[in-house]
Amino acid sequence: MVGFKKKLPPLSTLVTFEAAARLLSFTQAGEELHVTQTAISRQVRSLEEYLSRPLFIRGHRSVKLTDAGELLLQSVSMGLEHIATTVTELRYAKPESHLTVSATIAFASLWLSPRLLAFKQLHPNLEVRILASDRDINLQTEGVDLAFGCGDYDNQSGVKATFLFADEVFPVCSSNYLNTRAQINKPEDLLQHQLLHLDDEHWRNISWKATDWSLWLKSQDVKGPLPSGGLRINNYPLLLQTAVNGQGIALGWKHLVSDLLKQGLLIKPLQQSLNTHRGYYLVESSQAPLSIEAKTFRDWILQQAQNEQG
Asked: What sequence ranges are listed for the domain HTH lysR-type (predicted)?
């Protein structure tokens, strides 16, 4: 195979040509590349001699491309852009094969963690660091490659958010709890039961209105005071574990309780649900390209989300 050195002119002449052709000015090209206009002209002339044809039509104070120049500009621009993209990705890629992913404590423990085994089986040498926190995470300053978020990202600058799935909320409890209590045939019956609440402290770190029992019952046109004596817990995984233990009825977010429902640890005593009009998103910085590892993880997560939508 003949090497590129024998097939191509010096790379410096192609870089110079691209700048001059894009700007249609030898002077501006010189300013961009920090060389003199004479140096630009010399490089372009060298390239034209190599190709044995003119690339520019030179006027008194302007230049324009010949047909050969137009054709070469298309190829050189595409090639240099591809090289620049790859170089940028490699510059920002972490030297070790690892990535950091952030999510709320609930999402990390209830949705992400159960699925990581399948990802690790596909990529055993990729180290995944999970940063589970209910506070706002700064992707760039905290070294986070990807974040799972729930809410509205339309007006947030500096990030790119990819929609994963919408969510809905409905009551969940254990079958043991239901077997020893009064039947639940309609939403109003919940007022006769032990309700498990997410404490107000949980919602202080979240930018949207709390989705609590008052809101859920109101959405079902249930009137009347909430039953007294319920449990209040500031940690959602702990709240669900309390429901699994048969101590009451909790509100279940569809994608957070899906595995518990499949395992039979929780059941839905009613079919009614509340559409939260919020979605889960996979968030990345728009200020820097993703590493190869992060792209691999992102593509896998998007496939998982698509499977669940189906």
From this structure: 9-66
Q: Which residues contact 288 (CB under 8 A, 6 or more apart)?
A: 92, 140
What's the whole-model pTM score?
0.65
8 A C-beta contact, residue 215 and residue 274:
yes
pLDDT in tens, 112-138: 999 999 999 999 888 999 999 888 777
User: Which fold is adopted by the domain 98-163+279-307?
Assistant: D-Maltodextrin-Binding Protein; domain 2 (3.40.190)
Are the C-beta atoms of residues 193 and 306 closer than 8 Å to each other? no
Amino acid identity for residue 147 in this structure: A
For 165-277, the fitting CATH number among 3.40.190.10, 1.20.120.1810, 3.10.450.710, 2.60.40.1270 is: 3.40.190.10
- 82-108 per-position pLDDT tens digit: 998 888 877 776 555 789 999 999 999
> What CATH number does the domain located at 4-92 have?
1.10.10.10
